[in-house]
UniProtKB/TrEMBL annotation, chain A:
<dbReference type="GO" id="GO:0005524">
    <property type="term" value="F:ATP binding"/>
</dbReference>
<protein>
    <submittedName>
        <fullName>Sn-glycerol-3-phosphate ABC transporter ATP-binding protein UgpC</fullName>
    </submittedName>
</protein>
<dbReference type="InterPro" id="IPR005116">
    <property type="entry name" value="Transp-assoc_OB_typ1"/>
</dbReference>
<keyword id="KW-0547">Nucleotide-binding</keyword>
<dbReference type="InterPro" id="IPR040582">
    <property type="entry name" value="OB_MalK-like"/>
</dbReference>
<comment type="similarity">
    <text>Belongs to the ABC transporter superfamily.</text>
</comment>
<dbReference type="Pfam" id="PF00005">
    <property type="entry name" value="ABC_tran"/>
</dbReference>
<dbReference type="InterPro" id="IPR047641">
    <property type="entry name" value="ABC_transpr_MalK/UgpC-like"/>
</dbReference>
<dbReference type="InterPro" id="IPR008995">
    <property type="entry name" value="Mo/tungstate-bd_C_term_dom"/>
</dbReference>
<dbReference type="InterPro" id="IPR003593">
    <property type="entry name" value="AAA+_ATPase"/>
</dbReference>
<dbReference type="InterPro" id="IPR015855">
    <property type="entry name" value="ABC_transpr_MalK-like"/>
</dbReference>
<dbReference type="InterPro" id="IPR027417">
    <property type="entry name" value="P-loop_NTPase"/>
</dbReference>
<keyword id="KW-0067">ATP-binding</keyword>
<comment type="function">
    <text>Involved in beta-(1--&gt;2)glucan export. Transmembrane domains (TMD) form a pore in the inner membrane and the ATP-binding domain (NBD) is responsible for energy generation.</text>
</comment>
<keyword id="KW-0813">Transport</keyword>
<dbReference type="InterPro" id="IPR017871">
    <property type="entry name" value="ABC_transporter-like_CS"/>
</dbReference>
<dbReference type="Pfam" id="PF03459">
    <property type="entry name" value="TOBE"/>
</dbReference>
Length: 355, 317
């Protein structure tokens, strides 16, 4: 186990820079999730950490050691690949013991460590099988077993769940988190799925176009997104954004599209008349008499909650209710955002305006 | 309630006419689709093969109907030292040429699989020996190894390394080396390109995983590339051995089996006895004598492939 420091790391492919100076401190034993849309540079960063890509500038250190010029095998890291990269011609046991075999460990030692990892992952009955004979979830576990056997300083996961079906993905998510709680090995996990990030991470790093948009605990990111990108990326269904202006005359309000009035708790000083984006999460709407007028377009019940798509001032918004309202398409209702939970972003820069 | 028999509707199939069955039954339908290929194979492969084997049991000559003489041709060949020399030559030729083709082909394939400048052009260039007609390349080699005008002798003489021409195709050892060299030159592209295709099916992430597991480049070859390539190696080398064993054109154009039968292969000897000397029965016997060797080569690769358990087993996902 050890900490990882990523300092002002840049990466260029030819003249094309894909990472523009990324700094991420990772504490010993932390579970850090790099999340972002495809092409944001998260996988490249992970591969640089593994030593599969070289670092154009900046430094990466594992523990106290700068590893920029350290061979991958000397870095004491283990990686789980998206397609698992299991050796098809080796049994599960051989797959897991391969790295030890290369290090000339004795066969007793290899057996012992493979057995221990197999027990942790409930793979013991499968040790003599070939990868072809395993299900997707089992292969996933073998890939993790291969990492665990090495007992590395850092685990790296590159979108490990994206080849699994939805149900298995949820189960494996819990399993990986449980594994981390048990082994307490520093982990860097890359995904494009914000739910995976929210549920598993100690710390989420949201990346976009080669920069870090925001770093923090899952709930910090959810409650106080730094900018419109993070606000829209974290949370499902995504936050609603309405363009308009801040109005302060006695009481702060937000004038949305077509003059819709939306409540604000406070307005930042000197923001009267400023163009802004009003952000409200679907779950923060209530039905209230003083809400904004809305016409219901589609109602999608999921059982535990109901998603309602409605038209507010000509813009489509989505609201989620846990209560079972009887709505029909075409109904007129009044939707009221909770003013203490709304977000205000600068229209030009996308930066957060309210505290 | 399982013992309560439910009256079953009589199968409708029996009532359908035989013709309708021939048209709609899945097995018959399969047969109809296979028929053209079967006719083709029987006519152009099975029939000539059968005829060749039959001829080897007769004393047929060109222009004369033969009579069945049982194994007399084979008995005669058993005591024929030239036949045994041709068997030795064929085995030597096949073994040495195939070993070199495999080594050089694998080396080239690994090289071409790396990132390097002009990769596409180099790959195309490797194929050149393969696309030149055999007889043309054999003629070129014939000139390269000519006793008077050989460019090799000429160069070595001008470098002062030798004082007189090497009699490439006139000396038994040199002649064998020359034809084997020409065969290797022609056969390497097939092996190299096919193995290259095999290499490209290996997922790059396996190599990345191996790098992280701490494998050196030799260990990556030994534990990842080579085992994953074995099925393709088996197929390629089977074909290569079969082609080499039955080679005719190259030898016939370069040496016609000479000097003193040192480069006579079974195929060239068979041609000489059957067509040139007119002894069709005897020539057919020589050809038929190749069959056990070829079957043995196929069996080796077949059982080599069968052992790879990791390719089989049901897919559970």
């Amino acid at each position: 186990m050890s900490s990882v420091q990523i300092r002002d790391v840049r990466k260029s492919f030819g003249n094309f820079e894909v990472l523009h100076g990324v700094t991420i401190p990772i504490e010993d034993g932390q579970f850090v999730v790099l999340v972002g849309p495809s092409g944001c540079g998260k996988s490249t960063l992970l591969r640089m950490l593994a030593g599969l890509e070289n670092i154009t500038s900046g430094t990466i250190s594992i523990g106290d050691r700068v590893v920029n010029n350290v061979q991958p095998k000397e870095r004491d890291i283990a990686m789980v690949f998206q397609n698992y990269a299991l050796y098809p011609h080796m049994t599960v046991a051989d797959n897991m013991g391969f790295s030890l075999k290369l290090r000339n460990a004795s066969s007793d030692e290899i057996n012992k460590r493979v057995k221990r990892a197999a027990e942790i992952l409930a793979l013991s009955p499968l040790l003599d099988r070939y990868p072809r004979q395993l299900s997707g979830g089992q292969r996933q576990r073998v890939a993790m077993g291969r990492a665990i056997v090495r007992d590395p300083q850092v685990f790296l996961f590159d979108e490990p769940l994206s080849n699994l079906d939805a149900k298995l993905r949820v189960a494996m998510r819990t399993e990986i988190k449980e594994l981390h709680q048990r082994l307490k090995t520093t982990t860097v996990y890359v995904t494009h799925d914000q739910i995976e990030a929210m549920t598993m991470a100690d710390k989420i790093v949201v990346m976009h176009d080669g920069i870090v948009e925001q770093m923090g605990t899952p709930l910090e990111l959810y409650d106080k997104p730094d900018n419109q990108f993070v606000a829209g990326f974290i949370g499902s269904p995504a936050m609603n954004f309405l363009k308009g202006h801040v109005r302060v005359n006695g009481v702060a309000t937000f004038e949305g599209p077509n003059g819709v009035k939306l409540p604000l708790k406070t307005a930042p000083a000197g923001s009267d008349g400023r163009p802004a984006v009003y952000g409200v999460r679907p779950e923060h709407f209530t039905i209230a008499d003083d809400g904004a007028e809305a016409e219901i377009i589609v109602v999608e019940p999921t059982g535990s909650e109901t998603q309602v798509f409605a038209n507010v001032g000509g813009e489509q918004v989505v609201a989620v209710f846990r209560e079972r309202h009887q709505f029909n398409p075409g109904d007129k209702v009044r939707l009221k955002p909770d003013p203490s939970l709304v977000h205000l972003f600068d229209e030009a820069t996308g930066k957060r305006m309210n505290a | 309630m399982a013992d309560v028999a439910i009256p079953r509707a009589k199968p409708q199939m029996s009532e359908a006419g035989a013709w309708a069955q021939l048209k709609h039954n899945r097995n018959w339908l399969g047969f109809w689709f296979m028929l053209p290929a079967m006719v083709f194979l029987i006519f152009f492969l099975a029939y000539p093969l059968g005829l060749g084997i039959w001829l080897s049991f007769t004393d047929t000559r060109i222009g004369r109907v033969g009579h069945f003489i049982a194994t007399e041709n084979y008995e005669w060949l058993w005591d024929d030292s030239i036949f045994w020399l041709s068997v030795f030559n064929t085995l030597l030729y096949t073994f040495v040429a195939s070993a070199f083709k495999f080594g050089i082909g694998l080396y080239l394939a690994l090289l071409l699989n790396e990132h390097m400048p002009f990769k596409a052009m180099l790959r195309a260039m490797v194929l050149i020996p393969f696309i030149v007609p055999t007889v043309l390349s054999a003629l070129a080699f014939w000139w390269i190894f000519d006793s008077q005008f050989s460019i090799i002798s000429w160069s070595l003489k001008h470098l002062g390394l030798i004082s007189q021409n090497i009699n490439f195709l006139g000396d038994t050892t040199w002649a064998r080396i020359c034809v084997i060299f020409a065969n290797i030159w022609r056969g390497v592209p097939f092996v190299a390109i096919t193995l290259l295709a095999g290499l490209q099916t290996v997922s790059p992430s396996l190599y990345e995983a191996a790098i992280l597991d701490g494998a050196s480049s030799w260990q990556r070859f030994r534990y990842i590339t080579y085992p994953l390539l074995t099925p393709i190696i088996a197929v390629v080398m089977t074909f290569s051995v079969l082609f080499t064993f039955t080679d005719f054109q190259l030898i016939w154009a370069m040496t016609r089996g000479g000097p003193v039968n040192a480069t006579h292969l079974m195929a060239t000897l068979s041609y000489q006895r059957a067509i040139i000397a007119g002894q069709l029965g005897e020539g057919a016997a020589i050809s038929s004598a190749m069959i056990p060797f070829l079957l043995a080569a196929i069996m080796v690769s077949w059982f080599g492939l069968q052992r790879r358990k990791w390719q089989q087993g049901e897919n559970n996902d």
